[in-house]
Automatic annotation (TrEMBL):
InterPro entries: ATP-NAD_kinase_N (IPR017438), DGK (IPR037607), Diacylglycerol_kin_accessory (IPR000756), Diacylglycerol_kinase_cat_dom (IPR001206), NAD/diacylglycerol_kinase_sf (IPR016064). The keyword Kinase applies. Residues 447-459 have a biased composition (Acidic residues). Residues 432-476 are annotated as: Disordered. Its EC number is 2.7.1.107. It catalyses: a 1,2-diacyl-sn-glycerol + ATP = a 1,2-diacyl-sn-glycero-3-phosphate + ADP + H(+). The keyword Mitochondrion does not apply. It comes from Lupinus angustifolius. This is Diacylglycerol kinase.
Length: 476
């Protein structure tokens, strides 16, 4: 990597200190990089690999372009960077204007880490929001796989990282839908509410950023939480297995430094939890007995969603990648009457796919050609209402991050609602599996939300944020 050609290549990604470090000496710059990047790495992801990537990226780029998410929160980094860029642009600095226009983000970590960063970018309402490339550094790696970045943990040597940087430079931008999730539940009679015990909510739910008390989503005596997802929201047995895996990893992190070991452990926990072989006493885990579900299609009218009693896991899917790269929706044959209203799973059509699974054997059908889960619906909105049930809890998961969700014990109810929030920009390689509705000239889908939505007036600033960062805007 020491020859002149390699050095010249890396200049295409380099950002000088005066853009990155407040108060740094202003450099006179002759070369504008084609693809300036900011790199965020979860140092704890991928066992040792996160730390190794931090070292390699720091050696190839300006070390101030590379951030360990354990030490620096992405909202603070991006807030400062864009404030600096705006300041220099105001002074007529053309270089700063070009950096802002060409900037791309690299995030290395699991799906939860990538979602956290996407939530920050959405909340900050940045001028010219940068597109994001994802490095697979987790167990599922569904987000990287959906956009052609692979699902295996990456090599960390200098040539491999330099090659990845060049892929980022050549990648195309692709819009994907963002989904806002709101959860409303009664505060516990005892204990702290920050966060609600016994909840350990993931980054995506932002327990410490409640919806404002003036927001119409709030009800007296209830607490409302918000968040977002870009890949999937799931509930039921698959989330329970994921929760068991994360709990085990938290107790014994030293054992989870190998991707193959992680996947074997996942499979073993799936068997232990009954995901492959349900006992006669596990009826309470059937989704239909836990919750009533309503969906909204494009017309703006709520309708009941029928869920077969055999379904033990339900997934609201935005991308064609779930559980390590499988596509639960598949390609519906619209010649069959049962699939007449269903389309391919486009990532920017304002709809998500609702899929059910009976058990893990049903999930293994995805490996077969044309295999798929139980297609339940395509919707622009969904609402789960949990009343007193035979179970005291269920399990939920957002983009790889699971939690244990208490269910009502008396006349209370828990409500979870998902609605469209907008779009973010991803970076995709030529082997990208995700499809845009705009790629097919013969197929048009109206992705605008229906104005007859009974709750369209709930348009407060609080509702429109994920809560990943404090929203800020620059003055004109």
């Amino acid at each position: 990597m020491g020859d002149d050609n390699s050095i010249r290549t890396l200049k295409e990604f380099y950002i000088p200190d005066y853009i990155l470090v407040p108060g740094a000496k202003i450099d006179s710059v002759s070369h504008i990089p084609a693809c300036p990047v900011i790199v965020f790495i979860n140092g704890k992801s991928g066992g040792q690999l996160g730390g190794e990537l931090l070292v390699t990226y720091s050696s190839l780029l300006n070390k101030n372009q590379v951030f360990d998410l354990e030490l620096k929160a992405p909202d603070k980094v991006l807030h400062q960077l864009y404030a600096t860029l705006e300041k220099f642009k105001y002074r007529g600095d053309n270089f700063a204007a070009e950096i802002q226009k060409r900037l791309r983000i690299i995030v290395a970590g699991g799906d939860g880490t990538a979602s956290w960063l996407l939530g920050v970018i959405s909340d900050l309402e940045l001028p010219q929001p940068p597109p994001v490339a994802t490095v697979p550094l987790g167990t599922g790696n569904n987000l990287p796989f959906a956009f052609g970045w692979g699902k295996k943990n990456p090599a960390t040597d200098r040539p491999s990282v330099a090659s990845f940087l060049n892929q980022v430079k050549d990648a195309k931008e692709m819009k994907i839908d963002s989904w806002h999730i709101v959860m409303r539940m009664r505060a516990p009679k005892e204990g702290s509410c920050d966060p609600i015990a016994p909840l350990e909510l993931p980054h995506a739910m932002h327990a410490f950023n409640r919806v404002s008390s003036t927001d119409k989503l709030n009800l007296e005596g209830y607490h409302t939480y918000r968040g977002g997802f870009w890949n999937y929201f799931s509930m039921g047995m698959d989330a329970q297995v994921s929760y068991a895996f994360h709990s085990e990893r938290k107790l014994h992190p030293e054992k989870f430094k190998n991707q193959l070991y992680n996947q074997r452990t996942y499979l073993k926990l799936g068997c232990k939890q009954g995901w492959f072989c349900a006992s006669l006493f596990q009826h309470s885990r059937n989704i239909a007995q836990l919750t009533k579900v309503k969906i909204m299609k494009k017309q703006g009218q709520w309708e009941d969603l029928h869920i077969p009693h055999s379904i033990r896991s339900i997934v609201c899917l935005n991308l064609p990648s779930f559980s390590g790269g499988l596509n639960p929706w598949g390609k519906p044959n619209r010649k069959k009457s049962i699939y007449r209203d269903l389309t391919l799973p486009f990532v920017d059509d304002g709809l998500f796919e609702v899929v059910g699974f009976r058990d893990a054997w049903h999930g293994l059908a995805l490996i077969a050609p044309n295999g798929h889960g139980t297609r339940l619906a395509q919707a622009s909105r969904i609402r789960f209402k949990f009343h007193k049930a035979t179970a005291d809890c269920t399990f939920m998961r957002i983009d790889g991050e699971p939690w244990k969700q208490p269910l009502p014990l008396d006349d209370d109810k828990v409500v979870v609602e998902i609605s469209h929030h907008g779009q973010v920009s991803m970076l995709a390689t030529p082997s990208c599996r995700s499809k845009s509705v705009h790629d097919l000239s013969s197929h048009t889908v109206d992705s605008e939300e229906d104005s007859s939505d009974e709750e369209s007036s709930e348009n407060s600033e609080e509702r429109r944020k994920f809560g990943a960062a404090d929203t800020f805007k620059y003055n004109d």
